[in-house]
């Protein structure tokens, strides 16, 4: 039995028979960029799953073929405090771990995954990508600090790969195959098959005793939690001190070069 709930930019389908929920970022016309409404819906979904014992595993994907997610929608109005000691990050609570959900989460990536997409990828247990997927971080190109994104990626990739992605900005994209080689992706599928592969994995995991699965998830994250927490504590200050003013960011965005290299 499936239950389907769709509002705004997020669509949720729960298969009560398998125990797998599929969350789909459903803004393909905006390359599944996350606006404030969708950010709130993601937070609500994770909180709801905490209390729904019929959901034993979750898959996150993006609608359409062009992108999994391109981060925060640039049209979203996010007023900021005038102090470098305070930053309101609208994406900070869009992931499962930020909402204290310790059920397994698998991300299925199609097309582009960049910037704020790493908040979701970074809090998943593993990532399945189809061969069309590419990964990049545009922050430095537009005069912004890649803080949270780099911290999340550092939990999954070698230092040099994280630094290269963050510093090269929009000039370079990492292919699905290269992402697999460096550990960001656990499986590469033919084009269009990442979601099906992720759901198959989730269904297997959901068939096991929930207590054992969730305990294993918690143990995996405990192994790196102290380092992650300490790093995230610095992120807001780095963003506040290093970001260019919004107007200058917009200017750089509007004059960006369309060419890039994929490796």
UniProtKB/TrEMBL annotation:
The keyword Isomerase applies. Gene3D superfamilies: 2-enoyl-CoA Hydratase, Chain A, domain 1 (3.90.226.10). The keyword Isomerase applies. One of its GO terms (molecular function) is isomerase activity. SUPFAM superfamilies: ClpP/crotonase. Keywords: Isomerase. InterPro entries: ClpP/crotonase-like_dom_sf, Enoyl-CoA_hydra/iso. Pfam families: ECH_1. Belongs to the enoyl-CoA hydratase/isomerase family. This is Enoyl-CoA hydratase/isomerase family protein. It comes from Streptomyces phyllanthi.
């Amino acid at each position: 039995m499936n239950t389907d709930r769709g509002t705004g930019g997020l669509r949720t389908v729960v298969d009560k028979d398998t125990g797998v929920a599929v969350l789909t970022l459903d803004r393909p016309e905006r390359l599944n960029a996350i606006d404030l409404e969708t950010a709130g819906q993601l937070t609500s979904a994770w909180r709801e799953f905490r209390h729904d014992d019929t959901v034993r595993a979750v898959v996150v994907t993006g609608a359409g073929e062009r992108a999994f997610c391109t981060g925060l929608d640039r049209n979203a109005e996010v007023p900021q405090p005038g102090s470098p000691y305070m930053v309101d990050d609208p994406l900070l609570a869009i992931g499962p771990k930020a909402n204290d959900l310790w059920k397994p989460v698998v991300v299925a990536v199609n097309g582009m995954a960049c910037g704020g997409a790493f908040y979701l990828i970074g809090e998943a247990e593993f990532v399945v990508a189809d061969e069309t997927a590419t990964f990049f971080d545009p922050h430095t190109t537009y005069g912004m600090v890649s803080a949270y994104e780099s911290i999340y990626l550092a939990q999954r990739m070698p230092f040099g790969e994280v630094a290269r992605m963050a510093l090269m900005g929009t000039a370079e994209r990492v292919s699905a195959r290269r992402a697999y080689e460096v550990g960001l992706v656990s499986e590469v599928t033919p084009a269009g098959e990442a979601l099906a592969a992720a759901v198959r994995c989730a269904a297997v995991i959901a068939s096991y005793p929930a207590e054992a699965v969730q305990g294993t998830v918690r143990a995996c994250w405990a192994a790196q939690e102290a380092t992650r927490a300490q790093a995230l504590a610095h992120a807001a200050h780095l963003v506040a001190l290093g970001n260019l003013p919004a107007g200058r960011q917009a200017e750089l965005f509007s004059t960006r070069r369309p060419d890039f290299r994929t490796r």
